[in-house]
Amino acid sequence: MKEKEDTTRGTQVISIKELKKRLPKEALELLERTLESNIYDKVLNAFRIKRDTTFRVNTLKTTRNNIIKELQKSEFKAKEIPCFEGFFRIDNSLETKLLDSNFVKDGFIYLQSLSSMIVPLILNPNKNDKILDIAASPGSKTTQIASMIGNSGIIDAIEPDFIRMERLKYNCSIQGVNNINFYNTRGELFCKDKMDYYDKILCDVPCSGEGRFSIYDKSSYNGWSKKEVNRLSNLQIKLLNSAFKSLKPNGILVYSTCTMNLYENELILDKFIKEGKSNIESDIEIIKIDNLFTTFNEIIKPILKDYDNNELDKSISKAIRIIPSENFEGFFIAKIKKKV
């Protein structure tokens, strides 16, 4: 079939009709049920856009100003992203060359999606915090947190899979991170011995990854299934409940996924809040996320009714839902405080 040219990016754009043929039918049906029709159309269009490659400066090894100078001497014509100091973008056609460059090999920069880089900013770790990353591999957010606090404090990084743990350790080593304890175990088991222990917790959970769907990358959608969504949602609520018990009073936990359906996002939060209240643990507070992140058109309000039209807890409206676009991957992020 003939595909039309996107002259603004110099790439071939798959038609929406062809897109729908290739992506999992059940996934599209689920997204259509989840999102308003105009938002759903934007999401479909985003699945056929090639986003720029984004990366951040690793301040454990260099500075923003040094990287800007070195990039100016190189073939990588990177541009800093407005509102995000130290975050840059380049044309995706240069990604392979960038990965082979000393910028990456020596750990001076880290390639990461813009949505992913926002999550640690919302967690806002402080120096000397005790921090838990309950599903840490491959270490994108883990190493960003370490960079933000200058290798101070302690980060406990959990990963149950041995191979993924080795990848996490490798990435931390390249980035010069030295304040991490690695635990090759399940997060919900590890937390049993860490009650009221952590100042900050990142609960960026395994998910079905709908926000990362790309028609140009079959691996981004090929493993999706409704059965897997159900399995993951059961794991997500276990990890969230376990992590929250490990949070100190007045501590902050950030829950995030790179997927878009209700089962892994709003419904997880709703279940978490209601189970907390039923157990007389009324110490859960959803914190409104800072306005800096709500100025982008891609950031929309969470959904407060489920598929059967049941009302969800109103505090969920303080979370953010990021729809995929030419700038962002799809993400869902909630900031949670344990009240005294």
Please specify the SSE layout and strand pairing.
Blueprint (H helix, E strand, L loop, with lengths): L3 E3 L4 E3 L2 H7 L2 H10 L2 H10 L6 E5 L6 H10 L5 E2 L6 E4 L4 H5 L2 H4 L3 E3 L2 H10 L6 E4 L6 H9 L5 E5 L3 H13 L5 E4 L3 H4 L7 E7 L21 H20 L1 E11 L8 H13 L5 E4 L11 E2 L19 E3 L8 E8 L2
Parallel strand pairs: 7-8, 7-10, 8-9, 10-11
Antiparallel strand pairs: 1-2, 3-5, 3-6, 4-5, 11-15, 12-15, 13-14, 14-15
Helix pairs in contact: 7-8, 11-12
Q: Helical region count? A: 12
Give the tally of structural domains. 2
From the alpha-carbon coordinates, what is the Rg to the nearest angstrom? 20 Å
User: How do the SSEs run, as a string of H and E?
Assistant: EEHHHEHEEHHEHEHEHEHEHEHEEEE
Give the overall shape.
Answer: globular
Uncertain regions spanning at least 5 consecutive residues: 1-11
Q: What is the end-to-end distance? A: 61 Å
Can you count the beta strands?
15
How much β-strand is present in the residues?
Answer: 15-25%
CATH fold description of the largest domain: Rossmann fold
Characterization of the model:
- The chain has helices at 16-22, 25-34, 37-46, 64-73, 95-99, 102-105, 114-123, 140-148, 162-174, 187-190, 226-245, 266-278; strands at residues 4-6, 11-13, 53-57, 79-80, 87-90, 109-111, 130-133, 154-158, 180-183, 198-204, 247-257, 284-287, 299-300, 320-322, 331-338.
- The protein is α/β, with parallel strands linked by helices.
- It folds into 2 domains: 53-111, Sun protein, domain 3 (Alpha-Beta Plaits); 114-338, Rossmann fold.
- Strands 7, 8, 9, 10, 11, 12, 13, 14 and 15 form a 9-stranded mixed beta sheet that branches. A 4-stranded antiparallel beta sheet has the order 4-5-3-6, with no helix packed on it. A two-stranded antiparallel ribbon has the order 1-2.
- A hairpin with a 6-residue loop joins strand 4 and strand 5.
- Helix 7 (114-123) packs across helix 8 and helix 11 crosses helix 12.
- Residues 1-11 have low confidence and may be disordered.
